Model the fold of this input.
Amino acid sequence: MIKEPYMLFTRIVIKKDSQGRLFTDPLWAKDLKLHLDYIENFGICCPVEKSKNVAGLQDISQLDIKWLFELKNDRGVLSVLKNLLPNFLTVIKACKQARIVHSDGAGWAFPLSFYLLLLKPFMPFKWIVVIESSFWMLGDNESKTPRKVIEHYAHKRLLKCCLKAANARIFTQSFYREYFLGNEKRRTLINPATWVDQSNFSTPEAVARRFKDKRDGAVNILFPSRLVIDKGVLVVLDAIEQLKLHEVNINITIMGSGDLKENCLRFTNGQHGGVSVRFQDNINYGEDFFRIIAEHDWVLVPTLKQEQPRIIFDAFSQGTPVIASDTHGILDITNKDTAFTFETGKSSSLAETILHVARHPDLALTMGLAGLHYAAGKTHLQMHQDRATFLKSSLNR
Done:
């Protein structure tokens, strides 16, 4: 158990109702509970909003959170400028309360780590930095507008300084460590992110039975995602257009919400040859979500960014292999036995890969069982236990 006062700095919003109860996203609430398993004196510094509408959020008022330092939520450029000094003062107060601070490399308009970088030379806290996303990073095929170029290099330079100054560094993939630290491996942990619980896992017998009982003869592919450009939505739609030129029997389900939802809905109304496309609204993470994954032969992960989508472990937990972009983060947690990867952003490469799995339907079971075996033990709880062991070791040096 880590006993020193521990402060988590994050841009994830907590909402407060008129009775003072606290609510947040159910998945983050689940994550907070596991932090409390190995941290005795835990606090949060994050944006807090008063709200009457807390539908779909989880009450965290009963969690043993010792301190809550309330930041103002940045919504636009003017609010960022207006909140800059008040939020900095709140961060200073939170740091005075803590002996250990924990921050990450994401958050709009900038990571809270940047505030901590300014304070590190003047305050005696031990610092943990976690890098698990890189939405700011320029993609290989992304247009290099002045704003994106500035955002990319500012994040890269400042986050590198944060990581150099930190007492412990946690990365979800080896690419992030090499990108920022080169060959430096001291005080670092590669800790892939997973949200799966042991109770969510299927069994080899259930996976084999599922494929044995399959009747329709079609290849069923699920594309669960935020429906935005960075997730490769347009790449998928273009690949489907290319597939209609071939004689295939493929069902593709697009599931999610986002800016491109209307594009996807219009697309489902069109004719795509031997490819049937349907739309499914978001399903809350839980039993129904895993059931839908298990109803499909493949899960599609066509992300354009150098990230490591958690959906891959979700798919493997059900014995469902993946078709995914060949980003560094994805290659870190897949291999030729569990996934087919295609050239990131290339719809022709994706179409060829889907054609291959359609012509070799037996691969889904073989690779699904390999994925299930690989993911065994890689649970949300184990992820936190690995972090706890690492932090106790690193922070005590």
Observations:
- The two ends are 16 Å apart (CA to CA).
- The mean pLDDT is 95.
- Residues 77-97 form the longest helix (21 residues).
- The CA atoms of residues 2 and 121 lie 24 Å apart.
